[in-house]
Amino acid sequence: MGDSQYSFSLTTFSPSGKLVQIEHALTAVGSGQTSLGIKASNGVVIATEKKLPSILVDETSVQKIQILTPNIGVVYSGMGPDSRVLVRKSRKQAEQYNLLYKEPIPVTQLVRETAAVMQEFTQSGGVRPFGVSLLVAGYDDKGPQLYQVDPSGSYFSWKASAMGKNVSNAKTFLEKRYTDDMELEDAIHTAILTLKEGFEGQISGKNIEIGVIEADRTFRRSPDCSSNRRLSSRGRVAVSFSFRRCFKYPE
Amino acid sequence: MVGKNCFAIASDRRLGVQLQTIATDFQRIFKIHDKLFLGLSGLGSDAQTLHQRLVFRHKLYQLREERDMKPETFASLVSAMLYEKRFGPYFVQPVIAGLGEDDKPFICTMDSIGAKELAKDFVVAGTASESLYGACESMFKPDMDHEELFETISQALVSSIDRDCLSGWGGHVYIVTPTEVTERILKGRMD
């Protein structure tokens, strides 16, 4: 196609009006490990597969879900190192806002600034776009929020979304299962089921990561709880039960 | 000065250069939004410039965040802006007054490099500040309604500025409640 002749430089449009590098970046995202997020009525859950290249890797040192501020967390699909750079920049932007206004940054503002960074790298010389899509989950005065940010710098607010390898199946599954008045417990359960759908091999507490934020506005991550280490690998009920214990739900 | 679910902010009206009076209707209190007022005492030109810069910042904030700034947030912003000029400061002393969440009154003042001073009852600034401190301390009562608050702040203001040679030519008082803003001009010693 004529497009491939324009794929050398990011800052050149192809005749069909696309920036081919961004398309390639999205392909990089699409071949990354699946991650997803669900916004419930009283919180947000994000989750991802954590497939390590070898059993010799110390899984406790790998953290895919990161905290940006005490009330905002993020997960990515795509290139890990790229996501680290974005997390670092976002944390700095959030802290600058806090330093100026002595107020935690609203989720929308942080997403907007992160997206602006990603867009910069699609319009500068000598750089390449980030090869990650981010799912940002937060809880602020406007309630629970979930945003997806793409390598092009565009962002959308989602009720439920998935990215990475198994995206089409995962999204179909989520579309069927999502209800507007879903509570957080159901959302976590659905998230784990969705991950299980496309999972190669046996799902367990060691090869997925879950992050949750609820009305107390504190983002929590699954590996920080020790109770999910021993997981029965039989059946979905056993998997979700130990995560629920991990997050100490009020009765 | 803080009242019951309302606040009042007042200033004198003189603009002068030592003994010469330049204007007798100088505006020193500025509205940032319906529930947030800023009074700037000190150098006239710095007061105007700082006001313009703060309005600029607030307008951008409103556009980006689709909401008004809370008074506490605004106070932090003013403090940060003043400290940016730590080694070449604005010669102003701001007085910030607003109704925050649930219409709870908020007042604070700061020095010219941004040291915030929060208070629950009243804050003062300017050449007559020492006299104002005394007047407010003796006249203030907690939980006054807006009528009584107006009387109190007017008396405190007029009695202090009348005794100060660099302040005067009347007073400008704003009483702000959750539903309305009342602006009144006071007549003191016109000198």
TrEMBL record, chain A:
It comes from the Eukaryota. The proteasome is a multicatalytic proteinase complex which is characterized by its ability to cleave peptides with Arg, Phe, Tyr, Leu, and Glu adjacent to the leaving group at neutral or slightly basic pH. The proteasome has an ATP-dependent proteolytic activity. The 20S proteasome core is composed of 28 subunits that are arranged in four stacked rings, resulting in a barrel-shaped structure. The two end rings are each formed by seven alpha subunits, and the two central rings are each formed by seven beta subunits. Belongs to the peptidase T1A family. InterPro entries: Ntn_hydrolases_N, Proteasome_alpha, Proteasome_alpha-type, Proteasome_asu_N, Proteasome_sua/b. Keywords: Cytoplasm, Nucleus, Proteasome. It comes from Ambrosia artemisiifolia (Common ragweed). Residues 6-28 form the Proteasome alpha-type subunits domain. PROSITE patterns: PROTEASOME_ALPHA_1 (PS00388), PROTEASOME_ALPHA_2 (PS51475). This is Proteasome subunit alpha type. Pfam families: Proteasome, Proteasome_A_N. The keyword Transmembrane helix does not apply. The keyword Nucleus applies. GO terms for cellular component: cytoplasm; nucleus; proteasome core complex, alpha-subunit complex. It is found in: Cytoplasm; Nucleus. SUPFAM superfamilies: N-terminal nucleophile aminohydrolases (Ntn hydrolases). GO terms for biological process: ubiquitin-dependent protein catabolic process.
TrEMBL record, chain B:
This is Proteasome subunit beta. InterPro entries: Ntn_hydrolases_N, Proteasome_beta_3, Proteasome_sua/b, Proteasome_suB-type. One of its GO terms (biological process) is proteasome-mediated ubiquitin-dependent protein catabolic process. One of its GO terms (cellular component) is nucleus. The keyword Cytoplasm applies. Non-catalytic component of the proteasome, a multicatalytic proteinase complex which is characterized by its ability to cleave peptides with Arg, Phe, Tyr, Leu, and Glu adjacent to the leaving group at neutral or slightly basic pH. The proteasome has an ATP-dependent proteolytic activity. Its main location: nucleus. Pfam families: Proteasome (PF00227). It is found in: Nucleus. PANTHER family: METALLOPROTEASE TLDD, PROTEASOME SUBUNIT BETA TYPE-3. PROSITE patterns: PROTEASOME_BETA_2. Keywords: Cytoplasm, Nucleus, Proteasome. CDD domains: proteasome_beta_type_3. It comes from the Eukaryota.
